[in-house]
Amino acid sequence: MAPEQATTAYAQLGGEDTLRRLVHRFYALMDTLPEAWELRQMHPEDLSGSEEKLFMYLSGWLGGPPLYEQANGHPRLRARHLPFTITSAERDQWLMCMNLALDEVLPDHPLRPRLWGAIEGLADHMRNKADPPGARE
């Protein structure tokens, strides 16, 4: 591995194997936790395509191979999510599943706090609908 590759978050987290475990655990949690029901309803019955897309996206986002871009062009992440209603509730469900997956796959990793801050910002950026009156933000 070239020295500059070892400095990417992708490499520091463990590369493809670790990222695949994280994404797989994220979708397993989303698929089974009652608290993530609204989020789960936004996805197809078979989660394998969604899982692969998230893996590919996160690979490039973390500085690894830009798999998503190679296969699909620029992610245009927010635009691709516009057909779905994403309020604070859906964002929070997504973050809950990701946090639990991170707890299991990367519990004490030194990069986790910085990674979590970036993930929170990314998830918040996906919100595209106002919260219903009386909902917390």
UniProtKB/TrEMBL annotation:
Gene3D superfamilies recorded: Globins
Pfam family of the protein (one): Bac_globin
UniProt keyword terms in alphabetical order: Heme, Iron, Metal-binding, Transport
PANTHER family the record matches: TWO-ON-TWO HEMOGLOBIN-3
Protein family: Belongs to the truncated hemoglobin family. Group II subfamily.
Annotated protein name in UniProt: Globin
